[in-house]
Amino acid sequence: MRFLREIRLGLGLGLATAGMAQTGSIPEAEALQPPTASRLAAILSAAQRGSWGAQSTMLRSAALRAYEKDRTAAAEAWLNVYRWATLFARPEEDFTREWFGALQAANVAHPNMPRRYDVHPRPLGAGLLPELQSWLIGNGAFSQEFFALLSPVDYVPEVFRILGTLHHRDPSPFKKYASLALAIALVYDVPPPPSWPHGQVSIEALPRQLPPPADAFAWFVQQERLGRLHQRLTQLGAAELKFVVDVTAPFTELEWAQRVVDLPSTALERAYTMVRYRTDRMTSNQPIWPGAKYRLPDILAAGGICVDQAYFATQVGKARGMPTLLFAGAGNDGRHAWVGYLDRREKWRLDVGRTGAQRFVTGLARDPQTWGLISDHELQFLSDGFRGRPAYRQSQVHVNFSALYLALGNGPAAGVAARKAVNYERRNQAGWEALIGAARKEGRPPRTIENLFREAVIAFRRYPDLEAYYVSRVAESLRARGETSAADEEIRAIALKNKGSRTDLSVQQAREILQRAIASQPEPEQMRSYNAVVDRYGPGAGIAFFDAVVAPFVEHLLELKQKSDARRALERARQALKVESGSQLHAELERLAQSIRSK
Fold first, then answer.
1. 59, 43 in Cβ contact below 8 A?
2. Which residues of 87-123 are buried (b: 16+ CB within 10 A; e: fewer)?
3. Residue 225, domain CATH
4. Same domain for 185 and 167
5. Is 589 in contact with 544 (CB distance < 8 Å)?
6. 183 and 170 in one domain?
7. How far is Cα 359 from Cα 348, in angstroms, rounded to an integer?
8. Which of 134, 151, 176 is the last residue before a domain boundary?
9. Going by C-beta distance under 8 Å and a sequence separation of 6 or more, which residues neighbour residue 392?
10. Same domain (yes/no): 135, 201
11. Mind giving me the DSSP string for 469-532?
12. In angstroms, rounded to a whole number, what is the distance separating the alpha carbons of residues 471 and 42?
């Protein structure tokens, strides 16, 4: 899993249109202090008379002057106003074109999205009333939260439309519950995919729809005022609240859950086990929900399998204002679903329904903001306590200015700012990416960039996913320089390191080794590589190894009409994986064997 959702280096930092005149300059003494209310009012007034783009050069200059004088608080404040100005000024057509590209690059486009988007020939900020624009540019806390969370796949025209609607309805609760409004805007900007919240229920039984944004905002605010929530909405940020507002069940069912499943905040696991497990559905191979409707009362009455238990528990948690996620993962002999939630101490509990003899090393859930996959390990990293410390705040300021310098084409200044960022907080991945981007901008040689990758490996020793990610980038660079043996050794070493505690990462590396063999070697050599991978990484890896390595390679051999080799490959895997009779893994191997026989 690559932890790149945290990195938003350039978003909202686009440069002002070339040749666009600035409205004046900000005196040096004023630039070294955060912008005053009167200055912000003058900027807003000038933008209304002319355009937001015309303010950008002046604001950028003030931010850079403050930064270069080490007045970071003032620099950050001016930078936030500059970011709003450039985002408000950005043509909707240009944004939408880049947004479509970002969707494809992140592989998060899906069939539930509209086939067509009506794009208006106007700047993005045109749909926001001046009153809201004034509040946005003057609210530093909201600005920091907004730009820290905004991702390339957020559809800003709809994000702004939702924020504008919520603010226009009643500015007072909007301002009090601004993080809730932001979470709704970032989640509801595009519809959810067909497989959300899980794929084991039909679209007829469970329509994949989010409620109207204004209704969701009003409902959650009302529930807090009625004292029905376990978490205070004003004490959670949008990064947590997005896992509350992504409700699938209608509000009537959530209110039913509040009445019937009246559990304390420390007992969400009881909501999971309240749903009687239906062993008969598994023995009869009926993983899809058999009922006509997928309502919470129906699930509780009929019982279900693990994915139904997990769905039930997540909706019960959301009904109480608790951030929850439905995780799915592969263990030694089968697949499973469980729940993660944020407790009242703001610590993620990622083990509801995860107990038992099976080792479900990694769980994957949908991030409702991007609809991409997020792992439980990634969630734990993103919620690590170091982000609440002053050092991380300082680190982020330097990251943001590194991005600005890079956008201006000043690689050396970007590198200096990025180095400050990682010196303040070495676990700030965005800082490492900024440092690597600056080195590339300066044209540094591959060995220098490899050294930066290795520095990052050391910085993330405690985080196996990130450690493996940067090791892979070292190997990729070595391979590009023709050092294939050294590259292979890097991959083998990290795979073996993770084999005991993080078999999912070991499996990922094994898959990459085999994919390279398929791409570059003749079929007999591919078989030898496969056998070596199975013998080295297969024992103890379970069904995840079957999914990532065994099944794809057997199917590859069948496409090559190598039926006997496919049979031998399957048998090799069966011996290495130590399959228990009657397990899901045993059933998967038998299905694949039948597929070979039928060819």
1. yes
2. bbbbbbeebbeebeebbeebebbbebbeeeeeeeeeb
3. 3.10.620
4. no
5. no
6. no
7. 19
8. 176
9. 386, 424, 425, 428
10. no
11. HHHHHHHHHHHHTT-HHHHHHHHHHHHHHHTTT-HHHHHHHHHHHHHHHHHHS-HHHHHHHHHH
12. 50
For 178, the token pair is 């601004």
Residue 437 lies in a domain: no
Cα 370 to Cα 83: distance, rounded to the nearest angstrom: 21
Cα–Cα–Cα angle for 517, 518, 519, rounded to 5 degrees: 90
Q: HSE (CB half, 13 Å, CA atoms) of 61? A: 14
11 and 150 share a domain?
yes
Nearest C-alpha neighbor of 454 from the set 480, 438, 481, 435? 435
Q: 584 lies in which domain range?
A: 505-599
Q: Are residue 562 and residue 524 in the same domain, yes or no?
A: yes
On whether residue 294 sits in a domain, the answer given is: yes
Which residues does residue 364 pair with via DSSP β-bridges, in sequence order?
328, 375
pLDDT of the chain along its 599 residues, tens only? Answer: 333 333 333 344 444 433 333 446 899 999 999 999 999 999 999 999 999 999 999 999 999 999 999 999 999 999 999 999 999 999 999 999 999 999 999 999 999 999 888 888 899 999 899 999 999 999 999 999 999 999 999 999 999 999 999 999 999 999 999 999 999 999 999 999 999 999 999 999 999 999 999 999 999 999 999 999 999 999 999 999 999 999 999 999 999 999 999 888 888 999 999 999 999 987 787 889 999 999 999 999 999 999 999 999 999 999 999 999 999 887 655 678 999 999 888 889 988 888 654 555 678 899 999 999 998 888 888 888 888 899 999 999 999 999 999 999 999 999 999 999 999 999 999 999 999 999 999 999 999 999 999 999 999 999 999 999 999 999 999 999 999 899 989 988 888 888 777 777 888 888 888 998 999 899 899 999 999 999 988 887 788 889 889 999 999 999 999 999 999 999 999 988 877 777 788 888 999 999 999 87
Q: What span, in angstroms and rounded, lies between the C-alpha atoms of 88 and 159?
A: 12
User: 228 is written with which tokens?
Assistant: 């029905």
Assigned domain for 362 exists: yes
**3-class secondary-structure state, position 103:** helix
- Both 184 and 289 in one domain: the answer is yes
Q: How distant, in Å, are the alpha carbons of 407, 409, 411, 418, 543 from that of 414?
A: 9, 9, 5, 6, 45
Provide φ and ψ at 326, rounded to 5°: -100, 115
Distance CA 491, CA 497 (A): 10
First vs last C-alpha separation in the chain: 35
**Half-sphere exposure (CA, 13 Å, Cβ side) for 30?**
13
Same domain, 170 and 182: no
Specify if 68 maps to a domain.
yes
**Residue that finishes a domain, picked among 383, 411, 445:** 383
Within 50-129, residue ranges assigned H as helices are: 56-68, 72-89, 92-106
CA distances in angstroms from 330 to 31, 279, 334, 374, 546, listed in the order given: 55, 19, 6, 15, 10
Say how many domains are in the chain: 3
Q: What is the distance between the alpha carbons of residues 103 and 110, in angstroms, rounded to a whole number?
A: 9
Task: Mark whether 545 and 591 lie in a shared domain.
Answer: yes
- Asked whether 544 and 582 are in contact (CB, 8 A), the reply is no
Specify whether the CB–CB gap between 281 and 319 falls below 8 A. no
Cross-strand partners of 341: 324, 349
